[in-house]
Design a protein that fits this description.
metal ion binding, binds zinc ion, 3-stranded parallel beta sheet, metal-binding, about 60% helix, Dehydroquinate synthase-like, alpha domain, Rossmann fold, oxidoreductase, mainly alpha, 2 domains, oxidoreductase activity, acting on CH-OH group of donors, Glycerol_DH
Length: about 270
């Protein structure tokens, strides 16, 4: 039984596969859909991204007590909101380019869109309730169910096409920059959403999201992530995010480091 947050459940999933054991997960944070998903995100000792092994079996049970999770505080939920809003922005361009969507892909697509709408509606009242200590609150429950449960259905039904694309590639690149481990996974992913949208040429969508980011406290600049905005660091992130094996190519086929650097430079000038 794994009782803890994303790192713990990801480690437990790896161990359960090695030992061929059934696993029950009890998440104590809602920072991502790690508790629901059948894969682990692995890092090295310096917290640099290594890979995402997909396990042959999922946990046999996932027990969610939203009032327990809410007690971890609003900041942790902000990270979860950032990771989860990416479900829509990362999967929609991949699905939009596909001509062979199954009914399950379409279910994943609609689920990702519902997640987007739920987060825009429920984040503010949910966070307010948590800050007020009102843990047994309908908005809080809906927010946590969206981050853990609904988010898991996107990759669950849509498979690899509904998993990571541009935003997580930027996140993975950011983990190679000194000091990035101090920022939550979901905050770096949320920043990556904006970079991906700019690479896609969707600046109006970035402008539409920025007030939401400002309201709930998601970062849209390197300063907000306490990272040094240097040419070398930009190149490190862009080279990794546009690498040959990067899932960014699923959203923007042939994306180049130069496009990603330009997007990051543009983003610093917005808002
Ligand atoms: Zn994530």
């Amino acid at each position: 039984m794994a009782i803890g947050a994303g790192k713990l459940s990801d480690t437990a999933k790896n161990v359960a596969e090695i030992l061929d054991l059934d696993l029950i997960i009890v998440p104590t944070l809602a920072c991502a859909c790690a508790a629901y998903s059948p894969y682990s995100v692995d890092y090295d000792d310096e917290h640099r991204f290594l890979g995402v092994p997909v396990h042959p079996r999922n946990s046999i049970a996932l027990l969610v007590d939203s009032s327990l999770i809410a007690r971890a505080g609003a900041d942790k939920l902000v990270g979860g909101i950032g990771d989860t809003i990416a479900k829509w922005y990362e999967s929609a361009p991949v699905f939009d380019q596909a001509s062979d969507l199954t009914v399950f892909d379409r279910l994943a697509y609609h689920s990702a869109h519902l997640i987007h709408d739920m987060l825009l509606e429920e984040s503010e009242p949910g966070l307010e309730a948590v800050r007020a200590g009102d843990y047994d609150n309908e908005h809080v429950r809906t927010l946590i169910n969206t981050i853990i449960g609904l988010a898991g259905t996107v990759g669950g039904f849509g498979g690899v096409r509904a998993r990571e694309s541009g935003a997580h590639s930027v996140h993975d690149g950011l983990t190679r920059v000194a000091g990035a481990a101090a920022t939550m996974h979901g905050e770096k992913v949320a920043y990556g959403v904006l970079v991906q949208l700019l690479v896609e040429g969707k600046e109006s969508e970035v402008q539409a999201l920025l007030p939401f980011y400002a309201t709930i406290g998601l970062p849209h600049s390197w300063r907000q992530m306490n990272l040094e905005f240097t040419d070398g660091n930009l190149q490190t992130v862009a080279d990794f995010a546009a690498g040959p094996d990067s899932p960014f190519h699923a959203a923007v086929p042939g994306v180049t480091p130069a496009q990603i650097i330009e997007a990051m430079r543009t983003l610093e000038t917005l808002a």
